[in-house]
Amino acid sequence: MTQSRHTPDPASRPTETPEPGEAEGDPATFDLLESARPLTALDRLVDRAGRAVAVLFLIAVVISFYEIVLRYAFNAPTIWVHETVIGLIAVCYAFGGAFALARDSHIRISLITAISGPRTRHFLHIVNSAFSLLFAVALGWAAWLMTEEAWFAPTGEFRLDRSGSAWNPPLPALVKGALFVCLCLMAVQALIQLIYWLRSDASTVRAREDEDA
Amino acid sequence: MTSRNDVSQTPSGTTPENAEPENAEDRAATWRDRVPQAVIAVVLLLVAAIAWYVLTTGKAMGIETGTVLMVASLLLMVLTGLPLAVVTTLIALLFTVGWFGPMGVPLVASRVYSFISEYVLVAVPMFVLMASILDRSGIARDLYNAMRVWAGGLRGGVAVQTLVAAIFLAAISGIIGGEIVLLGMIALPQMLRLGYDRQIAIGTVCAGGSLGTMIPPSIVLIVYGLTANVSIGDLFLATILPGLLLAALYIAYILVRCYLNPTAGPPAPKEERDMPLSQKLVQLRGVVIPVLVAVLVLGSIYGGVASVTEAACMGVVGVLVAAAIRRELSYKMLKDALAQTLNTCGMIIWIGIGASTLVGVYNLMGGTRFMNAAITGMDVAPITVVIMMMGILLVLGLFMDWIGIALLTMPIFVPIITDLGFDPIWFGILFAINMQVSYITPPFGPAAFYLKSVAPPDISLADIFKSLWPFILLQLIALATVLSFPQIALWLPGAG
Fold first, then answer.
1. Is A3 in Cβ contact with B131 (below 8 Å)?
2. Contact between chains at B117 and A135 (C-beta distance less than 8 A)
């Protein structure tokens, strides 16, 4: 992934019209974020929220660096950095699914889309959001079963699964909960996208594509 | 690779859209609707039939039928244009319920959980963030300019300069994409202006930019190391020579082409090349920061000082400091880089999640054992098995993303490779070269899409793919070479 746009990423998904960067006289900046457009109001909200969640990456970098300095320079490793970093990144990964859904940047193969007319592309949008909904509901259900186990004892009383390390934080339970919440969010996003496509027709698809071009 | 890209190619390119009434296009497009709609309807019916069969028959169908149905439903749904992450996860859940009943479902979720809380994978966002910051700074541009000192009056010199810059960039970047975009914006116009053969110019940018995951660090090798359970440090050592071999093949090809046909790669005009030595030295400053960052990251891995994840963190800090020294670091720049990292990781990791649940379920169904027995039971030379696997990887590479391929196939392939007595490190390098091919092969080579996003409008996607064939051939030569001489990969990690 990459891309980095990918970001591309490597793995990233190719974007279309480039927006040469804003920096003065600098031809080599290129904002790959410009091109993805959220579809619904909820998607726009998720898009904005993502920019806040992404700060967790920076926090992870900063505390990892703190740990490296403490360990190698002062020989005084911490007990909390390692697990915290894993937890922060896991939450980012979970939210990244919703973020990519909001920006329609989950990787897919567009063989049929490429050869079809606007009416079929509209139909494909409906199929696509219906399957995304099914996906989020099914995996969300699975995540709920797992989260339930991590949050409640078999007797039904509330207790959080802990990692069992020396620091022993309840991070496993929190990450599982975050995964469940993100899947619920993705389910609602997919549902609203499905409704959007069901209520529009081929001309909407064309209008959106024209705007993109 | 995404729908919108391709779409913009087809309908609007040929007809003067505004000149015609809208329904004219609709009428002209009926066949473009009927055929795909029929295909989609058939696919959906088939998928529904498979789902019904799996849910009602369950375990009784046997692992052979299970394998066939799994692959068939995967291909059918992926080709419909559904996101890979959605397809793989849904199939995993379908087979879990069919095979083990609803009690098996939490297993899928816990597989997702263990995947996203994998410590090694923490290196992935760090490398992506590092590249995102790098893309937004002028470091790469300065590096490219510094390479001018090398180009001189050489025929094809600017292309060689581009490739050398690409190698340096690859050594501080573990992903592809940003690099291709950057080279597409700086190097491609330069070569086109000098009158380079377009195919050479385009191929240089795409193939050179793809080296990002071939020359260490590389998130492809990180994910491979995770699934194959081998040392990522060793993989990073092993990939150096094959990576340089690829670059050397590209450079040799360009020099030969330009030697045979001087108009293919004219040198820059004399007045542009003539700069006083002092100025050349100033230009060379551009190399300093990338080299320092590469030494920081790779040095701490090779020196055994830090884990890959820690090294990646050092890399981010290094690039941040470099950008700050250059006065390019700003709140907005950092925020954009972070958001881009989230987007990229969302895409990569959710494909990974899907693939890892699917292969996890398949393994529980006894599929891995079945495949192992089937392949090792075949009466063929071990090397034939490796070649077959390469063929499968190349075909998958036409349609799928590297992380999906790695997580789907490697849990099955690597145990077989080890059983046959081969070195999994060597196999990892072969996999990485395979993915180099997948970046630039039509119809979905991501490198071509990245370049298209910044190339002059008169360069179409078809032009780009047409230019890439010689480079695909060179990659296949490199693949065959490392396949025949494993020492090229294994010499540095000291295993060969």
1. yes
2. no
